[in-house]
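Annual report, structural modelling task.

Input specification for the heme C complex:
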Amino acid sequence: MLSPQFPRPAAGKILGFVLLGLCVLAIGGTVFVQVERQPESSAVSRGARLTEEAGCYACHGRSEEEPRFNLRQTAPDKWRDKNNPSFWEGDITEVKVLVDWITHGVPAADAEDHKKLFIRMPAYRDRLTPGEIEDIAAWILAEGLKLRVDPAAPKAPAPGAPLTPDQLFVAGDALSRRHGCYQCHGELGQGGVANPDSFKGYIPGFQGKDFLKLTANGDRTEILHWIDHGRGKAIESGPLGRIAKKFFDGQAIPMPGYRDHLSVAEKELLADYLLLLNKTGPLPASEIERLNRLLNP
Ligand code: HEC
Ligand code: HEC
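The model returned the following structure:
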């Protein structure tokens, strides 16, 4: 009886399949890393970048300490020295006023007066989208909180008493301000601070998916571990733990461990606050306007 004869695949063919498999794995791995490294943003972090790119600092400076030269005409042949205001000097706390200035170069009501200036504000209507202008307003409002909010002011909430989200916000905000969390994680925890040689190139905020990935999906114990040690436990012991560890060890700015610098109650409150920020998601300009009133009544 004849057994059916199958041709044996040639060794070359097997090698071909193995190489193809390896290529697919390598490409898949690269795509995976690229996808994972996609930067995350918020209105505040985009606004910070756009303010830079739009050249706003040329005239407004970064603070009141920087030169902001301008002149105002007071009579046909008379000019008086005058500084441009920094973004915070005029104490503008409404999104719509900021948007009006940036969109039109000057609000209609101030247009006549603006003509007396030697250097005038350009209209950004045709250079920035309405969304981008709102992002800049969000950043200006968030950044202004550094000057407006006194982090020592809010009294610690009575222990055990359940807090409304706004009360938690006020208490958590004050703690974060006092202990430098925003300096690294962005104002209001909205991210955007650069960190060379970190996985994504920046320190993640508390508002989005980066936070969830680093805290085992917003696990409270994990957040408390980060606060105590400045390192994540779950992420370093997970399947890609070795890679995570390599980045945590190699990044320019590591997180300090707050173990001995915060009380248990303060750490618990911070964990609640971070979870609230994450649940709220990236803060839009309108919400930052409301928080300005809440934090600075
Ligand atoms: C070429 C110079 C110039 C540039 C660039 C510029 N501005 Fe202005 N801006 C001005 C001048 C001048 C005023 C009016 C100051 C005054 O009336 O005293 C002004 C006013 C403002 C005001 C109102 C400030 C207040 O307190 O009354 C805001 C807000 C503002 N600018 C935001 C921006 C933003 C945001 C950008 C970038 C997108 C920008 N400006 C770019 C010159 C400039
Ligand atoms: C000197 C900078 C610095 C300070 C100050 C700082 N952190 Fe961090 N934090 C980091 C860095 C860097 C990471 C790691 C992020 C990474 O490697 O991707 C991190 C990670 C975290 C994480 C993991 C999730 C996430 O979204 O980043 C939490 C939670 C966290 N920090 C909370 C806090 C809290 C709360 C405070 C204030 C009590 C604080 N941090 C102060 C730099 C800082």
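The mean pLDDT is 93.
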